[in-house]
UniProtKB/TrEMBL annotation:
Domain named Cytidyltransferase-like: residues: 6-134
Organism for this UniProt entry: Vibrio eleionomae
Protein name per Swiss-Prot or TrEMBL: Phosphopantetheine adenylyltransferase
Biological function: Reversibly transfers an adenylyl group from ATP to 4'-phosphopantetheine, yielding dephospho-CoA (dPCoA) and pyrophosphate.
Gene Ontology molecular function terms on file: ATP binding; pantetheine-phosphate adenylyltransferase activity
Gene Ontology CC: cytoplasm
Necessary cofactors: Mg(2+)
Amino acid sequence: MIKKVIYPGTFDPLTNGHLDIIQRSAAMFDHVVVGIAASPSKNTMFTLDERVALAGQATQHLSNVSVQGFSGLLIDFVKQEKVDILIRGLRTTIDFEYEFGLTNMYRRFAPKLESIFLTPTEEYMFLSSSIVREVAIHGGEISEFVPPAVAKAIAQKVKS
């Protein structure tokens, strides 16, 4: 049986912490879909197409990873992709409480859907997209926190 999973998120921007979770998931499963949410209610730095392209560049070395943008409910994307496992990253107990609530909601719509929670490696435990954006906006160095293509794209966004 081929096991396909989805790692969903906004990924604005994709960080090395996200990439850590993607790489580890790719080692555990046959296929990982990085599902990038449109998230129209969020004021994102990058458009959906830009986020998909940047994630594609960052994961191109992983043959069993694909990147897809989606709009609407995650549960609809999960059904469209015929997936019964979500990968979720947890950094803090606050993340756990939030994800625990979402997991129970997802089960109402898709009773067989399971969530697997992964914690990032220690060096990325503090890292979030919002921290990276904030540091970049204020002129801080972010290259150790994001893939090279993402660092370049953020630098260009901050300039304009």
